[in-house]
Specification:
Layout (H helix, E strand, L loop, with lengths): L13 H11 L5 E3 L1 H15 L1 H10 L21 E5 L2 E4 L4 E4 L14 H13 L9 H13 L5 E5 L2 H16 L3 E5 L35 E4 L4 H11 L5 E6 L4 H4 L5 H13 L3 E5 L11 H6 L5 E4 L11 E5 L1 H4 L5 E2 L5 E2 L12 H17 L1 H22 L5 E5 L2 E5 L16 H24 L2 E2 L5 E3 L6 H15 L2 E3 L3
Parallel strand pairs: 4-16, 6-7, 6-8, 8-9, 9-10
Antiparallel strand pairs: 1-18, 2-3, 3-4, 5-11, 10-11, 12-13, 14-15, 15-17
Amino acid sequence: MAYNGFAIDKYLNAEEVTRQLDELIKKPVYSIRPDKLDDYVENYFEKKCAKSKEMIEKAKEVIPGGVQHNLAFNYPFPIVINKAEGAKLYDIDGNWYYDLLQAGGPTILGSNPPEVRERVIDLLNTCGPSTGLFHEYEYKLAKKISEMVPSVQKFRMLGSGTEACMCAARIARLKTGKKNILKMGGAYHGWSDQLAYGIRVPGTKGIMSKGVPGFVFRHTDEFFPNDLEDLERKLQRNRLSGGTAAVYIEPVGPESGTRPVSKRFIKGAEYLAHKYGALLIFDEVVTGFRIGPGGAQSYFDVDPDLTIFGKIIAGGYPGAGGVGGHDDCMAYLGAGLDSSGKKVSKAMCGGTLAATPISCVAGYYTLCEIERTNACEKAGRMGDRLTKGLQKLIEKHHLPFVAFNQGAICHLDSVGTMHFVVDWSKPWTIPEVLKQTGIRQKEMEHMGAAYMAEGIVTLAGSRLYTSAAYTEEMIDDVLARFDRVFENCGRIDV
């Protein structure tokens, strides 16, 4: 497949990338040299970002940790952004950055596109952001999504991807009459209690879920990414304890493809879910309308029962989430009859600020612009250019780093923090695994700081999202900045 409107020209070899990542975590840690990191802190952050530092210190007095969103945590301190435009962000000190964070993935058109902004301004001048009653764009957005995504016959707007994942679990249990939920190890399906399980690192179970009682996970389990045999074992086991209601999948792999999966695995997971009477739930919070107008499911030719949408549904505006799917599943969100005429119960869900006029208007015109401008393919071409350039720089500087991409979702793994596995059959190994991930995460943060000092904003120093706002010239400038960081990297004693 040569793009054809998708962000992906040729899908990566998941096994080969996994092999490279396996090798990475066996090698010594390479990162920005301590002396250069100190130089960045002293001569960039302390001297050129003084207003950001001052504001964050004040914010700590009234906000836990000083920021409201986890993505904002950066070493040595968060940077305060006051302007976003296209491919660039601007801070309160007057510095500007290439935006490869893209608000965590949703702004495929680039930040604050005027074509959407003007429609939102018109709405605010007439209706305002919310009324609590029905607005015409609720219909227009739902209709647009159902036209673009083949599996979505009906769509219900919610407030976030987390809410959508919660709602999908309730639908699945009502539809199947079964109890258990299976999710891909390492994947993130929001921060609700029962799905905050096995996140970031496969095998972690509830280790990362502080504040969640263990009994909440009685009906939740994880399967290893790219391992169909493990998935089937878990499905078979669940037959003895209430059956499996749903199998949750991030379609390019957990954490937006940080541990990539193969096309064979995705098709196999679809087959196995239905073989054992479970709903297949595609979490397309990141991949939806980024891999292609029809989502990753169109690229992989998969027909999920339910699809989770998030961030991009409102184009980066608030109120960004929802669940869509087949008529017989979505019937459980509207009391009455399913597609066969059978009376069904209504799954509990809601949200005062779900499907507000502002989110629906923003979402509708965002999707229109994605279609009109062929944004997914444009962003994917920039992702390919960025990744190929990073691979050349890694070779040039003789670094063990691994760069790969799934279209406009790019990965630059310098330490392999999320490639470790917690193996409960060997409990004596777990403390060392957790120690290593902690050490490597710290170095990943240091790399993120180096990138930012060179004018590049990333997601945690390891994930890079390209948008349709980028040009080849911009990508080449970004690569020149990465080059300056890489030439100051070396082996770190840990």
